[in-house]
Structures are given as C-alpha cells and as structure tokens.
TrEMBL record:
InterPro entries named among the record's database cross-references: Kinase-like_dom_sf, Prot_kinase_dom, Ser-Thr/Tyr_kinase_cat_dom, Ser/Thr_Kinases-Pseudokinases, Tyr_kinase_AS
UniProt keyword annotation of Nucleotide-binding present: yes
Alphabetized PANTHER family for the sequence: MITOGEN-ACTIVATED PROTEIN KINASE KINASE KINASE 20, SERINE/THREONINE-PROTEIN KINASE TNNI3K-RELATED
Name listed for the protein in its UniProt record: Probable serine/threonine-protein kinase DDB_G0271682
Residues annotated as signal peptide: none
Nucleotide-binding among keywords: yes
One MF annotation (Gene Ontology) recorded for this entry: protein serine/threonine kinase activity
Organism from which the protein derives: Geodia barretti
Keywords: ATP-binding, Kinase, Nucleotide-binding, Transferase
Domain of life: Eukaryota
Ranges of residues in domain Protein kinase: 1-176
Length: 176
C-alpha cells in the first residue's frame, strides 16, 4: 500500500502499532469523509449533472487502470460505491484493499487461482457468485474489477441501488 501512488487511489501514509488496543498493525490512510455511495444517495444530490457522474467514473477508471497496469497487477476484488471515497474537490479515490490480490499477467507464468471469493456479492460477476458454495476454483483476472465497475457505473448514473439477479439452475416453467 505504501508503494501505491496515484491521484485516484487513497494514499497510505504509514503503519502504526497501538499497544493496548490491538496486536495487529493499523494502516494510517489519507482522511476522506464521504463515500461515493453516501454522496449519490444524499437527497441534496438527487439532480447531479451527468458531467459530475462521468467525472467520478473517469476517476475510478483511471485508478483501476493504474492498479491493473502494475507488475504484478493488483485486482481489487471488492469495487463498490462504498469503497470509493471523495475528496473535498469531489475527486473519486479507490480504497479498501483488504480483498485485493496480486496477479502476474505474464502469459508465460501460471496465473493465480483462488478457491474462495471475497467481496460484495451484488458486484460480482454471476459466474463467481457461487464459487464458495460450490467449492470450485476460479482464476481471477482484471475482468472481475471491470464487471464491478460496470455495476458501479449503473449505480452512479441512475443514483439507484441496482440488484443484479444471480443465475439460477431452475427451469422457469416448472420451478425445478
């Protein structure tokens, strides 16, 4: 986190150990008070201009491009409107890298396979929503974040929480 430096990624300022509080280290991050989710759902912002919404999405896309262009690439794996924070100038910054993973995109090497999926179910591609329950191994690529970005774009443009239905294996006619 300390090595990431991009205007659309929340900056990690350092690490601290808090004796008497927790045995785990604490990340000291850039302070941003408002999430994109809270901002978009605020009644005062119900008529945001399209230009502002596009600006948010461009900021997020630039941050994702930075993460995916690194060597090794970083896959966020939990890109949601709550994991995008806004500066006082309304610049969008990606945060919460707790589920992120490195991925070597060199085709000569073996890609990383994960046996469990972490993140927000509603923002996951349908083919990954049942991975944990089915115990199936899947390879994760930047396309996982791209799908989440598409869902995030829909939420940003409509300013309405969108629920994508997971795929079903039942016959709609018989219900079996």
């Amino acid at each position: 986190m300390l090595q990431l430096s991009h205007p659309n990624i929340v900056q990690c300022k350092g690490v601290a150990l808090l004796p008497d509080k927790s045995p785990l280290p604490v990340l000291l991050m850039e302070r941003l008070k408002t999430s994109l989710h809270a901002y978009l759902l605020c009644p005062n912002n119900s008529n945001l201009p399209v230009k502002r919404k596009v600006s948010f999405l461009l900021d997020i896309a630039k941050g994702l491009d930075y993460l995916h262009s690194r060597t090794p690439a970083i896959i966020h794996r939990d890109l949601t409107a709550t994991n995008v924070l806004l500066t006082s100038q309304l610049t969008a910054k990606i945060t919460d890298f707790g589920n992120s993973r490195f991925l070597d995109l060199d085709p000569r090497t073996t890609s990383r396979t994960f046996t469990t999926v972490h993140g927000t179910l509603e923002y996951m591609p349908p083919e990954l929503q049942g991975v944990t329950a089915q115990g199936v191994s899947k390879k994760f690529y930047p396309s996982l974040d791209v799908f989440s970005f598409g869902h995030l774009s829909l939420f940003t443009v409509t300013q309405t929480q969108v629920t994508l239905l997971p795929p079903t294996s039942t016959d709609p006619e018989t219900g079996q």
